[in-house]
Structure formats: structure tokens, C-alpha cells
Amino acid sequence: MTQKLILVLNCGSSSLKGAVLDNDSGEVLLSCLAEKLNLPDAYITFKFNGEKRKVDLSAKPDHTGAVEALMEELKAHDLDSRIGAIGHRVVSGGELYSESILVDDEVIAGIEKCIPLAPLHNPAHLLGLRAAQSIFKGLPNVVVFDTAFHQTMPEHAYTYAIPHELYEKYGLRRYGAHGTSYRYVSDETARFLGKDKKDLRMVIAHLGNGASITAVANGESRDTSMGLTPLEGLVMGTRSGDIDPAVFSFLAENANMTIAQITEMLNKKSGLLGISGLSNDCRTIEEEAAKGHPGAKLALEMFIYRLAKYIGSMTVAAGGLDALVFTGGIGENSDIIRERVLGYLGFLGLHIDQEANLKARFGNAGVITTADSKAVAVVIPTNEELMIAHDTARLSGL
Ligand code: ADP
Fold first, then answer.
1. pLDDT, tens only, 118-145
2. Integer Cα distance of 7 and 388 in angstroms
3. Of 72, 152, 202, 347, which has the fewest beta carbons less than 10 angstroms from its beta carbon?
4. What is the Cα 31 distance to its own chain's centre?
5. Are 189 and 204 in contact (CB under 8 A)?
């Protein structure tokens, strides 16, 4: 076979996720996950042909060690010479990047410039990028930004109502996230419905452990629920979403908490986990709510109500609604949440088709509203890796 494969890398500060994809079929030939990077017991797990293999990284427990181990694994399966380019997920491209781009020194400097906007993520992406450049010598690298798709948001949607000089001085504004998923899902929705995306006003809910919602019109993001950071917006697994900013001074004065403690609480101990006191995992919350656990019942209702409220407001941003789209682990699988969200949206003319809703699970796309609904609600599985692979192949000229 001569066809070139794409390696997609997603580097966090202590983890590295990788996948080798066939850009045409979308097939994942090999995947890996390195964990506990920069700790003595770092390791990487490879998945090839349905089989898992764990490799110790303690001799070199950093991003370079992980990429070296990946190279060895690729060699063992004769895949190394078939890799044509590498695509990297990058959390923040700030206002510098509105699309994916082939990496050169200037792009590396650009990602560095955006570090204040993603202080944990962008430095980790750069480590992965440098490791890939040195180990996969001569291959083109492409970066795909989570924020890029949202650069079409109008000023009145991305600006915070605080002194404008703070935006000018620090770039303090709303940037959004999950952009790669939204781009993929908006294209797929149009394809699935047999329409041109330019003719569709969509509200897309990407509901995973992190959750957000975006208004898309004319194929472009018009508004999104995440802001300067992924903390704003919906109730999430462990994040609070929207909250009165005065919570900071209230907790500082009454609970003697520091800014760092409050920030950590809002990001890691809130959302479904904080309300229920049980778990951030939506399946657990649904199961416990069904058994009558009061915290789980409240967490589930708050998740659903906030989401329904946001769908209403995103309908304004999209200028109307042709398609409401559910994606992400929860959006693709939870018939319960979809049904209860649609229960709030009868006034928009959306009515659930119970049977279709139950069928749209485990990777199956499908329209879940009745034929007499004024708009469609549809489940479309996301595939961020494939979108990154497509951009990487296109920009590398493969
Ligand atoms: P991440 O944001 O980490 O990529 P995912 O998109 O994988 O997350 O989604 C993870 C969430 O999806 C978890 O809360 C999980 O409980 C939820 N989920 C997966 N399957 C189901 C299901 N059948 N019913 C309800 N929730 C589900």
C-alpha cells in the first residue's frame, strides 16, 4: 500500500493521545494513550487490531519519551513509513488563527503567544509538536485549533460587558471551544439532511464531560456558550458553567477561600459531581436519579434545564432554527436527556419521536423528531480526530 496515513496527536500536560487514521475511510489503525507523563510511573497504552499493550515509560517519562515509544510501536507494525503528516490539536489560537495551519517557526511563536489564554494546554501542545518534529523528521505538522471555528462570532457575542480596555490590553473576550467538533458536526448534519449548510440554521449541543452549545448559521459559528475558558455556559461533569462572578468575593469573605481554590472548585468539583455529591459521569447520575437519589435528580434536572434555556438563546443567535443537533458522549447516547430537553422545547415546534430517539445511540445518527415538527432534532456522532486528519492531509498536500 502506498497511501499515506495521518498521525493525530492530542497532548495534555500529563497525557498524550494519539491515533493513526486512514484519511479516506476514517479507519483508526492504531491508537495510544500515554498517562502520568512527568511522573516516575509514566506509561503508554497502545491499541492495535483490538488488542491493548502497555509500555513502561519510566526511563523517559516525558512527551518525547512517549513519542519515541509511539515511533517504535509504529515500526513494529510497519506503519512508520506510511505516515504522511502529523496533525496536532491545539486548545487556543486566540485571535491569531481562524483556521488550521501548516507549522513553521512563526506558527510556533503564535502558539506561544496564546499561552496566557490556555496556560495548561498550549505549553503541552508545544512539547508534543517539538517531539514530533524531532522524531518524525521531515514530516509536515499541522495545527488545528479548538477556538478557530468560533472566530466568526460577531463582536457583540464575543465581548464581555466589562471595561473595553481589558479586551484591548489582555485579549479578554469569549473564544469558545470544541470548534473542531462543531465544524465536523455542522458539515455532517448538512450531509445527513441532504442540505447545503449555508441554508441551515443550526444549534449544536456538544455534550461530553465538558459540554458546550453553538449557534451555526451559513456554516459559521455565531455564538457559543464557552467563553474566555471552558468554564462558562452549560452545567458540565465537574464544571459549574454560568455563575454569578460575585461568588468569588462571597466565598473569599465567608469561606476564607483563595482565588485558586475557588477556581479549582468551579472547574473540578462542581457540575454534576458537585450537585449530586456522587459522580461526574452522566450514566451514573441517570441510574441514581432513576432510583430516586435527590442529588442525582437535581443534577440531572439542572443539566437539562440549563441546556434547554441555552437552546432557546442560541436560536436567537442562529436567527431561527432548522436543526437542533446532539453530539458528544451524552448527546449521542442519552435518550433520556434528549427526550427531557425536547420536553422543554414544544414551543419551538419540536416534538420527540420516541422510537427514533431510542434508536439513535451507540454511533447511530438519526432524526429524533416527528415529521410534523417545525424543525428537526438530530443526533450526529462527532469525530474530532477525523476532522484533524482531513485538515492535516489537505494542508500537507497529501
Ligand atoms: P469527553 O468530554 O471526555 O470527550 P465524552 O464525549 O466521551 O467526554 O462523553 C462522556 C460522557 O458521556 C460521560 O458523562 C458519560 O457518562 C456519557 N455517556 C456515555 N454513554 C452514555 C449513555 N449511554 N447514557 C448517558 N450518558 C452517557
1. 998 999 999 999 999 999 999 999 999 9
2. 9
3. 347
4. 18
5. yes
